[in-house]
Design brief:
The structure is a single chain. With 319 residues, this protein is mainly alpha-helical. It has twelve helices and no strands. It has two domains: 68 residues, no CATH class; 230 residues, no CATH class. The N and C termini lie close together (12 Å).
Length: 319
């Protein structure tokens, strides 16, 4: 594009940026577009006055953003309502892949256990299987969730789940293989675990009880695996960036996603410690929690990011 046409196309927008605004989202949007314009101008008109003009506009906005080092309180809100969903939207394809990968190995776990009964003990361990069989014989198949103090159980489970999610994220540095291996382990275990109860005629009951906390916990684990794959893919497929630049960008995205999972793991730990143990609760309560958890995961990590992304792109001025 010729410089004259570039200026004509954008000059009105640049002039509008000279008018001050108190809207932080508008300030951030202006700065983002000016950085893009500056990058384009430096590439094609490196020694022109256009570069200096855009740079001056961007510098003024930059100073207005950072003149006060203290973060505003609403920054926390926008992190959850905007940054995380838009970051997830960028990596929806990776998230779909991790979900399909997890689902496939859950199915493999089920069919492997059905084909070879010893596979259950090989995956879950003799002690756990024996304990579960004793609980079933005693008429309390899910007694394992009632053996510990609620508060101690909550702290232990929440810490362990968060630790596993960060491990799954960090394991992505091994070109995604580490994250995929952790997903493989957990998906296989889930498939075998559910087969064990279905085989004994308690499949529906196991879903009503275990997925009270399992819906959030398993979903968050899959998303943590996605964050690890984001890192691995950045190394394998850096696109137009150097591998270091690509890794830095991917790590920022991955960290945002993992931080976003912390409240979900804490909520899942609360359900597992304080709610799941009440196996006698009415079915409608179990279904309400289960369906509500599933709806939240699908809304926040699938549908809302799509809607928000379309809204942002629609409101963005043409360049």
């Amino acid at each position: 594009m010729r410089e004259g046409h570039f200026i004509k196309q954008n000059i009105d927008r640049w002039k509008s940026y000279q008018e001050p605004t108190d809207d932080p989202d508008e300030v951030a949007k202006r700065f983002t577009y000016l950085v893009d314009d500056l990058s384009y101008a430096k590439t094609f008109y490196p020694f022109s006055n256009t570069v200096r003009y855009i740079n001056g506009l961007a510098a003024r906005i930059y100073l207005s953003i950072y003149k006060n080092k203290k973060e505003k309180s609403h920054r926390i809100i926008t992190f959850w309502t905007t940054e995380i969903p838009l970051t997830i939207r960028k990596h929806h394809r990776t998230l779909l892949f991790t979900f399909l990968f997890f689902a496939v190995f859950v199915a493999i776990g089920v069919f492997s256990a059905a084909y070879d009964q010893t596979f259950v003990r090989a995956i879950l361990g003799n002690d756990y299987v024996d304990m579960t069989e004793r609980n079933i014989a005693n008429g309390d198949p899910f007694g394992v969730y009632k053996n510990e103090n609620e508060v101690a159980m909550f702290i232990q489970i929440a810490f362990n789940n968060i630790r596993v999610s960060f491990m799954c994220f960090a394991a992505g540095i091994f070109v995604s293989i580490g994250s995929l291996y952790m997903l493989f382990q957990n998906s296989l275990m889930l498939g075998v675990f559910e087969y064990m109860f279905f085989h004994k005629g308690m499949g529906f009951q196991s879903i009503l009880v275990i997925f009270i906390h399992g819906t959030l916990e398993i979903s968050a684990l899959v998303i943590a695996g996605c964050s690890g794959m984001i890192i691995g893919n950045s190394i394998l497929f850096p696109k137009t960036y150097t591998r270091l630049q690509s890794l830095i960008r991917a790590t920022k995205d991955g960290v945002k996603i993992v931080i976003g999972l912390i409240p979900i793991f804490i909520t899942a730990a609360f359900f597992e410690s304080f709610v799941t143990r009440h196996t006698e609760m009415p079915i409608w309560i179990s279904l309400t929690i289960l369906v509500g958890s599933l709806f939240f995961v699908l809304w926040y990590f699938v549908f809302y990011p799509i809607i928000l992304s379309k809204k942002v792109n629609h409101n963005a001025p043409a360049q």
